[in-house]
Amino acid sequence: METTAHSTSAAPAAAVSASSGITVTPVTTAADKKAFILFQYEMYKGDPNFVPPLVMDRENLLNEKKNPWFEFGRAQLFLARDASGKIVGRISASEDPRYNEFHGVKVGWFGLFECVDDVAVAKPLFEAAEAWVKARGLTEMLGPCSFSSNIDWSFLVEGFDSPPVLMMPYNPRYYPKLAEACGYGKAKDLWAWAIDVSGEIPEKVARIAEKVRVREGLVVRQASMKDWDSEVKRIKEIYNAAWEKNWGFVPMTDREFDHLAKDLKMILVPELTLIAEVKGEPVAFAITLPDANQAIKLAKGYLTTFGLPIGLVKMLLGLKKIRSGRLAILGIKQGYRRRGLDSVLFLDTFNKSKALGWKGGEISWTLEDNDLVNRAIEVFGCKKYKTYRVMGKQLGAPAPRN
């Protein structure tokens, strides 16, 4: 289904690969959209590390009335079927005009990619997405990306021996190879770091962090859930200023940020939602989320079964048992960077996680070439244990617009 904040164009025609008998068609009906969503669950049957997302969350992601990204973005979903009509692959093509304006580029995105291990299926899927993107005057394709880098993107390329943590992707090992066979190469690697909080922070590292706290007059406090709307505004201001022109980053609109904040509030741990202030001014923040994937997995995609809240009950019970999490966001305002504030936030997050009885978790993701941040994480004893990859392809001259 194609959607845009301003207009809806006619969906592209079906593409047929005569040599393989694969037909790629745009998603235009509710039945197609449902099939698009459910294909992912079929693909991962028997994979012990797959965490089935809630079907309702996938539906909301694709719903232009519920996902605020669609207020400015546009997307098209595609399904691939074999000669018998069986679905064997899916992909999305999308355009984010705010990203392109922010970075001064002409990039389109592929995403939501799922495919059997067959280049003959992957190739027409990518070709359909590329044609859609080129028709919009875009000259490069990046992905995978579920519409926004603020939500979900990249292929897992290393670290397949454990499940993904909350809001991190997971895929079969062969997906990057399929993309390579279709002309895509590495654009950027993202790293995930494992941290063990059962031990102690090196004394020298802790001492330096405390010196930074005193020198900067830094006060780190936990966010107030009673004043959550105001806290969201403070965090949002830091977030959109913190990354500036970082590779892949795009500032969130107020609606996007508020939508995400509302979703996350249900699982936030106040002790691990930290705001750092200097003379009362919020200048940095760090948010560590419990790894709700451990509970989501128990629901097997559904909160209810035959009208009974079986999945919901399993999730709620599972949430109480979680003892690990993900340091998902750490942002520092311009003018306060390279002054050690990150070390204070790391230290406080470590100590508070330990006080809560947590055993460990993940810091993710960081850019492979962000040496300053990566070195700081290593100093705290973290180990790089997963690698994710954003892949790209130059598409050449765009097709003329109709």
General description of the model:
This protein has 402 residues and is an alpha+beta fold. The chain has 2 domains: 180 residues, Aminopeptidase (3-Layer(aba) Sandwich); 193 residues, Gcn5-related N-acetyltransferase (GNAT) (Aminopeptidase, 3-Layer(aba) Sandwich), CATH 3.40.630. Helix content is 33%, strand content 26%. It contains 12 helices and 14 strands. Strands 1, 2, 3, 4, 5, 6, 7, 8, 9, 10, 11, 12, 13 and 14 form a 14-stranded mixed beta sheet that branches. Strand 10 and strand 11 form a beta hairpin. It is globular. The two termini are 19 Å apart. The N terminus is likely disordered.
Structural class by helix and strand composition? alpha+beta
Quick one: how many beta strands?
14
Mean pLDDT: 91
CATH topology of the largest domain: Aminopeptidase
- Strand residue percentage: 25-35%
Secondary structure: helix percent: 25-40%
Any idea what the shape is? globular
Number of domains: 2
Q: Secondary-structure element sequence?
A: EEHHEEHEHEEHEHEHHEEHHEHEHE
- Using the 3D structure, state the CATH architecture of the largest domain: 3-Layer(aba) Sandwich
Radius of gyration: 22 Å
Low-confidence segments: 3-9
Considering the protein shown, what is the CATH homologous superfamily of the largest domain?
Gcn5-related N-acetyltransferase (GNAT)
Provide a brief overview of the structure.
This protein has helices at about 30-45, 55-60, 95-105, 120-135, 175-180, 205-215, 230-240, 255-265, 295-300, 310-320, 340-355, 370-380, and strands spanning about 15, 20-25, 75-80, 85-95, 105-115, 140-145, 155-160, 185-195, 220, 275-280, 280-290, 325-330, 360-365, 385-395. It has about 400 residues and is of the alpha+beta class. β3 (about 75-80) and β4 (about 85-95) form a beta hairpin.
